[in-house]
Amino acid sequence: MSHEILVGVQVKDSDMYRQYREAMMPILERMGGEFRYDWDVAKVLKSAVDKPMNRVIVIRFPDSLTKQAFFNDLGYKRAKVEFFEKGVETSTILAAYDVLSETA
After folding, report:
1. What is the pLDDT of residues 18-56, one digit of tens each?
2. Which of 44, 61, 92, 93 is the least buried, fewest Cβ under 10 Å from its Cβ?
3. For residue 14, is it left (φ>0), alpha (ψ between -120 and 50) or beta?
4. pTM of the entire structure?
């Protein structure tokens, strides 16, 4: 059973966000994670939070413990400070859930 998070972000600097993704991807992949979906959102019609979003992403982890280890990884934390915090205005975890089976 894998674990996924659905994240909404407001990217304010595309180059910084690209560098963040490049820096964190080897860590994510080493831990068995992946980006499953990544949408560039033109318009948000309804939101439960008062934060803008122009990207929506689904990240898969092998399990919730691996997700915690990923976000606590020192290399990830460095990438977050160096690139994510400069490239992203806001971020919101929209959902976190266990996936019982993969769909085709």
Report:
1. 999 999 999 999 999 999 999 999 889 999 999 999 999
2. 93
3. alpha
4. 0.90
